[in-house]
Structures are given as C-alpha cells and as structure tokens.
Amino acid sequence: MRLPKFEYFEPKDIDEAVSILQNEPAARILAGGTDLLVNMKHRVECPPAVINIKRIADLDYVRQDNGNIRIGALTPLKGLYMTGRVKENLPGLAQAASAVGSYHHQVMGTAGGNICQQNRCKYFNQSQWWRSSRPTCFKAGGEICHVVNKKEICYSTYCGDLAPALLALDAAIRAAGNGGEREMSIQELFTGNGKAPLNLGAAEIVTEIVIPAEAAKGVLTYMKFANRASIDFPIVGIAFWASTEQNEYRVAYTAVDRKPLRGLNIEACLQGKELSDENIAEACDLAAKEAKPVKTSVYAASHKRKMMGILLRGAAEKTRTRLSRK
Fold first, then answer.
1. CATH number, domain containing residue 24
2. For the chain, is the Cβ count within 10 Å smaller at the N or the C terminus?
3. How far is CA 182 from CA 3, 37, 208, 294, in A?
4. Same domain flag for 35 and 171
5. Residues 111, 22 share a domain
6. CA distance 91 to 165
7. pLDDT tens per residue across span 10-66
8. Entry pTM
9. Are residues 36 and 111 in the same domain?
C-alpha cells in the first residue's frame, strides 16, 4: 500500500517544529512512524502535512536529575530498555518497553510516540477496502461508532504498553507549545475521548517524560495478554507498583478503556496490607469493576474483565517475589 500525498517538513529543533505545527494545525507529528504510517496507508489518517521530528537530536536521552529520571520523547524503545540506568533502577519500565511490538518496532518506535499513539478498534484499524463495506465510523470521519451503534461518539480503545507503566510510576510529561513548556501528570495527558485521545493544545508536542525519584523506591511489574508474545498489541495489560518501604501500591491497566486507567479500587483494597494470597484474591474480585470494556477487538468484554483479574494476580505475585529479594 502506498502513502497518500502530503507536504513534508523536517524541523531542526523543537521551536521550529512548534512553529510549523502552528501554521499547519492539521499536520501530524512523525516520531518513529510505526503507528502513523500504517494508519496513513490504510487511509484512516490522511493529514495534509507530516512533521518529522526524528532528527531533533536533543530529544533522545535518558538522564538523572536530582533523583528524577528524565526520558527524551524521541528515545527509541530499544534505547530505553537497554539503558543501564533504566534496567537497574526501573526494570519494570524496561520490561514494558521491551513488550512493545517486535524488535523492529522497538528500534523505530519512540517513548513519546508510544504513549501518544492512536486508539485502536476493529472497525478503524482496517484497510480502506475492508472499511468500504459499511458506513465510515465516527473516528475515521463518519457519524457512527459501530462498537456501540451510537452516533457522534467513539469507543476505540487505548492499547499502549508504556502508558500503564508510567501511570503506576506516577510519571509526568512535558510538552512544548506556543506559550513555552508545561508539565502535567501522565494521567492528564489522556482525555478518554476515543476520537481525540490526547489532551494537547493545537501546536503542542510532547518533549519529555519525567519519572520521580520515589518511583525507584518500589518494584514495578508489567504483564500483558496478547494473541502472540511479540508483534501484537495487548488485549489487556497491567502495571503493578509496590513500595519497598511501606505497603503502598499503584495499579494501572491498558486496552480496557478509551484511556489507560488507574485501578483505584484495587489500590484502596490493598493499601496498608501485605501482599498475602488472601489480600490479592480480594483485590482480584474488584478488578473486573475497574473498567467497562467494549468489544473493540475479537475478544468479548467479559473475557477482558476476566483477564483483568488474572493479570492482577500474576503481577501482584511476581511483585511480591521481587520484593522478598530486596
């Protein structure tokens, strides 16, 4: 499949990229291209312009600053999980990065691109020929969401691997725009709107991920259920963080809603308690109530809810084992 026609820009720095985006508000940002280019070939995204920021050198780094770990948005996923600082201090984040797609996706894909990827749906992520057999869905420019058979709403699912890990680590992101840079929690980045999943201004670009020093004072485990061990997006994914100093936990899911979700009821259930079999089982009973998944893939919503509990048990038990070695 060929790409549609578009105007191509290759800025030298982030200020130039923001300026171009201000003049071309319908343009799309190209970082690794593993998500955008596929969607363009399928004609579900046909931007009039593409801004390639891949060559902006000062957005590719992993460094430590006052205990915080700062990750440039253009850091390749492979570079992220191969960096000694990440492997030693945040092995769970390295685990999430290495779970993305195939080796080729990890070489091309970037940290910022992965968290800013488009939501997915079995009615949206198809070829132009496949989609021509039914009315265009709302996300692709039509009127109806075929998942719930309602107009002017989109129930596509967020399926990124890095976002739940960053949620569990209580990370923040920095974005550059016309008014300079601003910082927001990773949770604030996601709108819960399937058609427009990111809370970014018209000329804003994610530039950095900031992981607080306190995150390294805990153990993070990432697990996902997918059709195949590699290549595929998660059907359900979970990130489970536990403090090494006190009985404090954070849980986040991906691929179960229109945005990555914190498991707040699970966290409240476990807070202040040991990770005993009984306490884990009690938390697993709550897992299915943390989200209301719909059938955006070949798997039924009921199967996803069941997997939420199964993955929670596996992640909690693996985290408990790792905590015992500290």
1. 3.30.43.10
2. C
3. 34, 28, 10, 34
4. no
5. no
6. 11
7. 999 999 999 999 999 999 999 999 999 999 999 999 999 999 999 998 999 999 999
8. 0.94
9. no
Cα angle, residue 159 at apex, residues 72 and 209 outer, rounded to 5°: 15
98-147: pLDDT as tens digits: 999 999 999 999 999 999 999 999 999 999 999 999 999 999 999 999 99
pLDDT attached to residue 325: 84
If we measure between CA atoms, which residue out of 21, 24, 15 comes closest to residue 56?
15
φ, ψ dihedrals at 285, nearest 5°: -65, -25
**Domain region containing 49:** 1-54
Q: What does each C-alpha distance from 259 to 8, 102, 161, 173, 191 come to in angstroms?
A: 30, 23, 12, 16, 7
**Tokens found for residue 28:** 């799309």
Asked whether residue 141 is domain-assigned, the answer is no
Residue 64 has which token pair? 């430590």
Instruction: Say if residue 68 is in the same domain as residue 46.
Output: no
Query: Are 47 and 163 members of one domain?
Result: no
Please indicate, yes or no, whether residues 204 and 108 belong to a single structural domain of this protein. Answer: yes
- Domain count for the chain: 2
Let me know if residue 135 belongs to a domain.
Answer: no
Q: What is the DSSP string of 271-302?
A: TTS---HHHHHHHHHHHTTS-----SSSS-HH
Q: Which of 139, 132, 146, 161 is nearest to 39 (CA)?
A: 139
Q: Are residues 165 and 111 in the same domain?
A: yes
Q: Is residue 7 part of a domain?
A: yes
47 and 166 in a single domain? The answer is: no
Q: Which segments of the chain are extended strands (E)?
A: 7-9, 28-30, 49-52, 62-65, 68-72, 144-145, 150-151, 172-177, 180-185, 205-211, 218-225, 236-243, 249-254, 261-262
What letter does residue 12 receive in the DSSP assignment? S
d(CA 101, CA 72): 20
Token pair 């003049």 is found at 23
Residue 110 falls inside a structural domain: yes
The residue count for the chain: 326
